[in-house]
Amino acid sequence: MPAIEGGNPIRSEKLPNGRQTVDEKDVAAVVEVLRSPWLTTGPKVAELEAALARATGAADAVALANGTAALHAAAFALDVGPGDEVIVPPITFAATANSVVFQSATPVFADVDPGTLLIDPATVERKITSRTKAIMAVDFAGQPCDYDALRKVAAQNGLALVADACHALGASLDGRTAGSLADLTVFSLHPVKPITAGEGGIVTTDNADFASRIRRFRNHGIDADHRQRAQRGSWHYEMVDLGYNYRITDIQCALALSQLDKLDGFIERRRQIARQYDEAFAENALLTPLAVNPGVGHGYHLYVVELQLERLRVDRERVFQALQAEGINVGVHYIPVHLHPYYREHFRTAVGDCPVAEAAYERILSLPIFPAMSDEDVADVIEAVEKVTEAYRR
Ligand SMILES: *Cc1c(COP(=O)(O)O)cnc(C)c1O
Fold it and tell me: Rounded CA gap, 153 and 175, in Å?
């Protein structure tokens, strides 16, 4: 009997949905910076930027305070402003669309593909108007979008292409690494993401003008940072744009550099876990994992399944609560962004705008996946999912 109905839970201690993996090498790297002269805007920032450019195959990388700041900076670099529209998917974290609003522009929601929940290039095309400035695609769950199709749509319509790859550091498409698939790519270094800095964000680009605008933007729009002025022996600087304090510390960058050494291993472990889930659920008619496109090297930031509600006696909410009761912390990624009260009120979005995303939202669950999960943890998740879905089979 399911624990929620009074049976024994699979686990007594709750398994998290996602969690960072930090080891003693990471700790030592942070401590070393604390003993150095530079706590912020120092050599570790440039070192992390160079390492991420190498890792992603982009010409340049800029490190910022967090992924949201990095998205904002990308919108700024593209001159997104009042009257402009930027096309975004609804199945994402709110920050994707919010970054457009920060620049006083309008996010326009384009529906997703039902198999992958990635933005659908055909829908994007239908949402383009004379005001459209850019497409912001989201590599949901760690799967790169169809960038060949998106690039074609962008080029035909004179639009910029941004990848919100906050889930997808270490992922690839047809052998090309995330970070080199769009004009600007944004990564997050939040603890649940592929590698962490505590908080942190990265923009990668091949465009030197974008990179220098973003470096100014993270430092109040000032043309030279503290360290550059110290090196020049000059006090003089000019503020040329309205920027923010979106700087990242050397403490954070040292942690991210140490984590980056382990990225390949982290991704490999996530893929192993995903394979175990795939095999376990292949014969289960009560749920379906999201589809994976050919040529995708998946990052598996999330492992998302869709419940086959027609075959169940209960809704997603009950399955969610039942799995929590079994000691498995499942998640729901995401509430479609256009359904949040803020967007309904300020942008007049409504139910019906993105029917595929809205229907998927009723069925999705994100199962625990993170590199430190043991095989026993994975087995517990599989057992709990089978137990709960079987108990509620119609
Ligand atoms: C995490 C995330 C962000 C925001 O990143 P932060 O570093 O938390 O600011 C943006 N978009 C997506 C898709 C994310 O998952």
Answer: 22
Q: From residue 142, how far is each of 91, 228, 283, 330 by CA, in Å? A: 13, 36, 24, 17
Q: Is 98 in the pocket of ligand 1 (CB under 6 A)?
A: no
Rounded to the nearest angstrom, the distance between the alpha carbon of 139 and the centre of ligand 1 is 11
Q: Which amino acid is at 231?
A: Q
Q: Which residues pair with 185 in a beta bridge?
A: 163, 204
Atom of ligand 1 nearest to the CA of 188: 7
First to last CA, the chain: 16
Q: Give the residue whose CA is nearest to atom 15 of ligand 1.
A: 166
To the query of whether residue 152 is one of the catalytic residues in this protein, the response is no
Out of 14, 44, 133, 193, the active site residue is 193
Torsion angle of alpha carbons 199, 200, 201, 202, nearest 10°? -150
Instruction: Give, using CA atoms, the residue closest to atom 7 of ligand 1.
Output: 67
Q: Which two tokens stand for residue 81?
A: 């402003």
Cα–ligand 1 centroid distance for 119 (angstroms): 17
Contact 44, 250 (CB under 8 A): yes
Kindly state the tokens that stand for 34.
Answer: 């604390």
Q: State the pTM of this model.
A: 0.97
Distance 278 CA to ligand 1 centre (A): 26
Question: Contact 250/33 with Cβ under 8 angstroms?
Answer: yes
**How far is the C-alpha of 97 from the C-alpha of 284, rounded, in Å?**
35
Report the atom number in ligand 1 closest to the C-alpha of 138: 13
> Which residue shows structure tokens 């997050």?
188
Per-residue confidence in pLDDT tens, the chain, 394 aa: 999 999 999 999 999 999 999 999 999 999 999 999 999 999 999 999 999 999 999 999 999 999 999 999 999 999 999 999 999 999 999 999 999 999 999 999 999 999 999 999 999 999 999 999 999 999 999 999 999 999 999 999 999 999 999 999 999 999 999 999 999 999 999 999 999 999 999 999 999 999 999 999 999 999 877 777 778 888 888 999 999 999 999 999 999 999 999 999 999 999 999 999 999 999 999 999 999 999 999 999 999 999 999 999 999 999 999 999 999 999 999 999 999 999 999 999 999 999 999 999 999 999 999 999 999 999 999 999 999 999 999 9
β-strand pairing of 184-188 with 176-177:
unpaired
